[in-house]
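Trying the structure run again after the queue cleared.
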Amino acid sequence: MKNFLKRQKFSFAIVTSVVAACLWPQAFDTWCGVKLLKLISPAIGLIMFGMGTTLALDDFLRVAKMPVAVLTGVVLQFLVMPFVGWGLATAFGFDGEIGAGIVLVGSVAGGTASNVVSYLAKANVALSVTMTCISTLLSPFLTPVMMKLLAGKMVEVDATAMMIGILQIVLIPVLAGTLVHWLFHKSFERHKAVCDGVLSFISSAGICFTLLVLTAQSQTKFREAGLVIFAVAVMHNSIGYLSGYWITRLLGRFFKFDERDARTVAIEVGMQNGGMAGALANDVLHSATAALPANVFSIWMNFSGSILASFWSRRSPQTTSSE
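Done. Tokens:
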């Protein structure tokens, strides 16, 4: 319950950030002569660095211990979510920047919040961390491909620039953080509670900052289409949860996945890295409007993740055979 309340506080902070950005957009444009949009990528890079400091070599090597489960999750991550995003954008008549933004949300790696939700939901945390690592490592290659394929007719997509952008703001910081953890792992273990608290605060603050700035830049569009985009985000997120869970349960008949694995894949597929999508929309697509779906998705994702974790935390998995 304590962890659940913490997640709700974060969700409240996210909603507050968006409301503040809509009410006082001019306050989040420039500070001390610096355009805040220029700080989005460094903020996401700092979050990714923090994620890297929580990873150990075992998190990457664990792929060899459960390759089919990881492969299933990653394939669903980069197939279900991009195509569902494209389908929803098309069905709701969103073309141009907002449509591309919806596809982009579905095409990025899984969000780091999924690891916390997996823990609270009594899922397979080791599998969750590994899937997040692998999807993040693959994102510089798969995200540009899916964007070019599905959003190329909506906006101009420079796949090479997107690949470089993901390398700079995601992959390099994650690997740098992992290296720091490896070099100072004894200190991290000795002061784990403090490190986790500091990194959690930095990550939460970075996400709220990103939402503040990007929403402030696109608040007019948010007022015009916010409710419809919210409906799209709810459906996108829900389809990710449902497809991840039930496809894994179906495949479990052949590959001996248990319900903990199904919960994990559902969470990993349904929860996207909204910060990464927002940064790429701003830096590569050069559009704060394209970042709007990522902002709305992040708001709903954190709320729904908290509810899902609370629901599953009260229900023991049917079996726990796979880890």
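Residues 238 and 262 are 15 Å apart (CA to CA). Worth checking whether this holds up in the mutant runs.
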